[in-house]
Amino acid sequence: MPGVIIIAIVLVVAIPVSVLMSGAVASALLGYFLKDEAETSHAGSELIETNI
Fold first, then answer.
1. C-beta separation of 19 from 13 below 8 A
2. Which of 29, 38, 41, 43 is deepest in the core (most CB within 10 A)?
3. How far apart are CA 11 and CA 47, in angstroms?
4. Confidence of residue 52 (pLDDT cuts 50, 70, 90)
5. DSSP code at position 43
6. How far is residue 21 CA from its own chain's centroid?
7. Residue 52 DSSP class
């Protein structure tokens, strides 16, 4: 019986949290690299200063 409870907790809590956290890490890395690439390819543009 305790095994069923542990499996239910893993399915309801651990897996969704790990999926959300891995998605957050992936989006942070993607945003960092895309912003860095855009700043280098558009160096000297007056619109770069308006980015936050």
1. no
2. 38
3. 46
4. low
5. T
6. 7
7. -
Q: Give alpha helix (H) positions in the chain.
A: 2-9, 15-41
Could you report how far apart the first and last alpha carbons of the chain are, in Å? 53
Q: Cα(25)–Cα(18) distance, rounded to whole angstroms?
A: 11
Q: What is the pTM of this model?
A: 0.61
**pLDDT by residue (tens digit) across 4-50?**
999 999 899 999 999 999 999 999 999 999 988 888 888 888 877 78
Name residues whose C-beta falls within 8 Å of residue 45's C-beta, 6 or more positions apart in sequence. none
Distance CA 23, CA 19 (A): 6
Nearest Cα neighbor of 35 from 16, 17, 52, 15 is 52
